[in-house]
């Protein structure tokens, strides 16, 4: 049999799951994308950031993958997902958690289609009810009850509802949801161990601020310099980072208004721009495990 995956290959062959080619990322956080909804460079834009070619100004749409004790947890499925995972050598995702249902965080979902060939079961999707409704509407073909024409013809998905107030277990880890406001839209951030991820927000309610107490690494939305109705600006993100008090704050969901090289020189100590491909250690209590902070995070060269 041809070893290449194709649409005729069933999820299980002779009782044995296919083994994916993938990097081992257990204990790591990998930033797949750190850009705004249109990405950077922006189409048709001739600004200095879009045309400058700095490798850390090449920003795809926002997503993370975390190497948890029992597998890889993906946060959101942006339209760039396939390219992002290939770039980082991550060949398998064991589960997905969604922050919200906007297109730049959802519309790469069909790229999950290969993973059941490796898992032997549908991909679990942890999301709020509003996100599940959007998935079932936009990807209705994934939930048809009619027989498939061949294995892999449509995504195999299993939604698992979560709420903003109740921690949930996934892949051997405890994930604490964080209610965030994204303009008038209610979205989620997540805390895992000493790490918290709060993209797409311009307000963090008091309850969520309490849940952020003691985080060491805080990732926060910082779209641009001047205010925006649904995202933190740069100054607002820095202010909320001081309120949270994490040792290290990383800015994400960044537009072409913020160039990496220039901005890094003006940010206060402990605050920096995240970038696509950044890797950090995942530390703290992760379910029943304690993950130590290594001497230094691994990151690609600029």
Structure characterization notes:
This protein is an alpha/beta fold. The chain has a single domain (23-143, 151-284), classed as Ribonuclease Z/Hydroxyacylglutathione hydrolase-like (Metallo-beta-lactamase, Chain A, 4-Layer Sandwich), CATH 3.60.15.10. It is built from eight helices and 18 strands. It has helices spanning 48-52, 81-88, 103-106, 115-119, 129-138, 206-211, 234-244, 260-264; strands at residues 12-13, 16-17, 28-33, 63-68, 71-75, 95-97, 123-127, 157-161, 168-170, 173-182, 185-192, 195-198, 217-221, 248-252, 271-273, 279-281, 284-286, 289-291. The chain has a seven-stranded mixed sheet. A hairpin with a 2-residue loop joins strand 9 (168-170) and strand 10 (173-182). The longest helix has 11 residues, at 234-244. Residues 1-15 and 295-302 have low confidence and may be disordered.
Give a brief outline of the structure.
Helix content is 18%, strand content 27%.
Question: What topology emerges from the helices and strands here?
Answer:
Layout: E1 12-13, E2 16-17, E3 28-33, H1 48-52, E4 63-68, E5 71-75, H2 81-88, E6 95-97, H3 103-106, H4 115-119, E7 123-127, H5 129-138, E8 157-161, E9 168-170, E10 173-182, E11 185-192, E12 195-198, H6 206-211, E13 217-221, H7 234-244, E14 248-252, H8 260-264, E15 271-273, E16 279-281, E17 284-286, E18 289-291
């Amino acid at each position: 049999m041809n070893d290449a995956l194709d649409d005729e290959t069933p999820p299980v062959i002779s009782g044995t799951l296919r083994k994916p080619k993938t990097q081992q990322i257990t204990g790591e956080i990998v930033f797949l994308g750190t850009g705004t909804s249109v990405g950077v460079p922006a189409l048709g834009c001739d600004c200095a950031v879009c045309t400058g070619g700095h490798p850390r100004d090449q920003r795809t749409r926002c997503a993370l993958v975390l190497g948890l004790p029992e597998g890889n947890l993906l946060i959101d499925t942006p339209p760039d997902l396939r390219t992002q995972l290939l770039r980082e050598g991550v060949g398998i995702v064991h589960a997905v958690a969604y922050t919200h249902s906007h297109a730049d965080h959802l519309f790469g979902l069909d790229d999950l289609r290969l993973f059941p060939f490796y898992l032997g079961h549908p991909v679990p999707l942890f999301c709020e009810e509003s996100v599940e409704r959007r998935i079932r509407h936009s990807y209705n073909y994934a939930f048809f009850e009619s027989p498939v024409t061949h294995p892999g013809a449509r995504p195999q998905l299993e939604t698992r509802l979560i709420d903003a107030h109740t921690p949930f277990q996934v892949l051997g880890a405890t994930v604490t949801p964080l209610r965030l406001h994204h303009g008038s839209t209610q979205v989620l951030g997540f805390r895992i161990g000493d790490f918290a991820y709060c993209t797409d927000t311009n307000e963090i309610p008091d309850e969520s601020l309490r849940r952020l107490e003691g985080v060491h690494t805080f990732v926060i939305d910082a779209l641009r310099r001047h205010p925006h109705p649904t995202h933190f600006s740069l100054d607002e993100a820095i202010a909320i980072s001081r309120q949270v008090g994490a040792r290290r704050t990383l800015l994400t969901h960044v537009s072409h208004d913020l160039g990496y090289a220039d901005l890094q020189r003006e940010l206060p100590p402990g605050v920096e721009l995240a970038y696509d491909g950044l890797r950090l250690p995942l530390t703290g209590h992760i379910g029943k495990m304690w993950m130590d902070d290594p001497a230094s995070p691994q990151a690609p060269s600029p």
